[in-house]
Amino acid sequence: MPATFASMPDLIGNTPLIKLEAASALTGCTILGKAEFLNPGGSVKDRTALGIIRDAEARGQLRPGGTVVEGTAGNTGIGLTLIANALGYKSVVVMPHSQSREKIELLDLYGADLRLVPATSYSDPNHYVHRARRLAEELVEKEPNGAIWARQFDNPANTDIHQRTTGEEIWQQTEGQVDGFICAVGTGGTLAGVSRALKGHNPDITIALADPQGSSLHNYFSRGELEGEGRSITEGIGISLVTDNLRLAQVDRSYQISDADALPYIFNLLRQEGLCLGGSSAINIAGAVKLAEELGPGKTIVTVLCDYGDRYKSKLYNPVFLENMGLPAPDWMRN
Ligand code: PMP
Questions:
Q1: For residue range 169-206, what is the model confidence (pLDDT) as tens digits?
Q2: What is the ipTM of this complex?
Q3: CA-CA distances (angstroms) from residue 184 to 7, 118, 246, 325?
Q4: Which residues of the chain are in CATH 3.40.50.1100 domains?
Q5: Overall pTM surpassing 0.90 (yes/no)
Q6: Considering the domain 8-43+165-333 in this protein, what is its CATH number?
Q7: Is 90 an active-site residue?
């Protein structure tokens, strides 16, 4: 019998490009979303998790029974934990407790050794990234089978997997007929990897950043100052530092996107196009519309549909939460 059966890590990547009908009609462009929510862990971060684990294995840092430690807004932890289960590793996940209840419950269910920490600024030594680094340093000493700190913000294996897979897939799927790409930044791995792949094929493709309020990157790219104002309910995106992965990105322009502008896109997407997505996808689609308006009709713009909306039922899809955050909920959600 031919060996054509898949195992869990084989399910990661090769996601389809979906035409976003309303956004395309609005702009006269073809706006396409890379359906990353179809990865087995439900997000774009499965790719990063697999890339980092495979890189550590190749370097001999991780042996069967070894441990992967990471600080994460949730999705990388989910990907790492599922892949760890499939490949015979353990996972330790450090996460701010401000993240959605659903992501915390999933991590628990999947078997992560979950350490919830207060949501503090990056300069605080108790920030989840620093806590993860210290934990990994302790485990490296103790674990006979090896332990790694996945280090998604600065680990070049993150950009590398997006360059080799996400970016190449977009080029192949559009047969090179792509004029622009835009996405938000959590670690910068997606933006860096896809920008390098697409610019490598055609340097004229416009690469843009969609930045939520409260993040410092829009100001950084538009006037060189790392500062941000306001806040966003979106999870996993928006940062106030330039990571090693982001430094690898080739960015032509950037847009600041408010939640109030972005959220209607995914609320409409659910009710009119049957896709239930998370908040970072809303920022990405709103950004794609701005980029389309700037490039003009007839162009093809690709963005990323990062994760499923059901992991934000208690927040993004909860009218009481939205009201408390001063954000409008659509009528159908309130009834
Ligand atoms: N959307 C969501 C929901 C995420 O969790 C993340 C990663 N934290 C991103 C987008 C951003 O991806 P990247 O880390 O590649 O910048």
A1: 999 999 999 999 999 999 999 999 999 999 999 999 99
A2: 0.98
A3: 30, 24, 11, 21
A4: 8-43+165-333, 44-149
A5: yes
A6: 3.40.50.1100
A7: no
